[in-house]
Amino acid sequence: MLRLALPRVSHFPKQKPAIQLAWKKNIGMLMQICKAIEDLTPSQLEQLAEIVAERLFERLRTNRRLLNRNELAEVLGVSVPTIDRLLREDDFPVIMIKSVRRFDPIEVIRHLAKKSAKPANLD
């Protein structure tokens, strides 16, 4: 069962009633989305993941800019230590500007997709 740790409206006692109502609506919508996702078959989940990836790729392509480690971690949905680990383990696509690392999110996603498409070495 999919569970989300969502803040309760009661955690925001000083908020105006209109903001509390907006929180209730958003939390309700998220709960409906979670319920719908639970009912998907594996192939439907795969299709959903492809749609989300395509939309993310399109958004990144139209708003293309170089990212720092924190921004890249946010885009990929991972932690900054995970980015650091990837930097140590791989020939990760990095752009150096003087001594500052920057990342092209599209190139990083391509790199990770190629890496995940390679068959595992079972030797």
DSSP strand (E) fraction? under 5%
In sequence order, what are the helices and strands, one letter per element? HHHHEEH
Could you report the average pLDDT, rounded to the nearest whole number? 78
User: What is the first-to-last residue Cα distance?
Assistant: 36 Å
Any idea what the CATH superfamily of the largest domain is called?
A: Winged helix-like DNA-binding domain superfamily/Winged helix DNA-binding domain
Sequence stretches where pLDDT stays below 50 over 5 or more residues? none
Main sheet specs: 2 strands, antiparallel
Q: What is the alpha-carbon Rg in Å?
A: 19 Å
- Quickly name the level 1 CATH class of the largest domain: Mainly Alpha
Strand order of the main beta sheet, please?
Answer: 1-2
Count of DSSP E strands? Answer: 2
Shape verdict: extended
Domain unit count: 2
Helix content: 55-70%
Instruction: Provide the CATH architecture of the largest domain.
Output: Orthogonal Bundle
Q: Which class of secondary structure composition applies to the elements?
A: mainly alpha
How many helices? The count is: 5
The fold-level CATH name of the largest domain is Arc Repressor Mutant, subunit A
What are the salient characteristics of this protein?
123 residues, Arc Repressor Mutant, subunit A, 2 domains, two-stranded antiparallel sheet
Structural description of this entry:
The protein is mainly alpha-helical. The chain has two domains: 16-63; 65-117, Winged helix-like DNA-binding domain superfamily/Winged helix DNA-binding domain (Arc Repressor Mutant, subunit A), CATH 1.10.10. The protein is built from five helices and two strands, in the order ααααββα. It has a two-stranded antiparallel ribbon with strand order 1-2. Helix 3 crosses helix 4. The longest helix is centred in the first third of the chain and has 22 residues, at 17-38. The two termini are 36 Å apart. The model has no long low-confidence stretch (mean pLDDT 78).
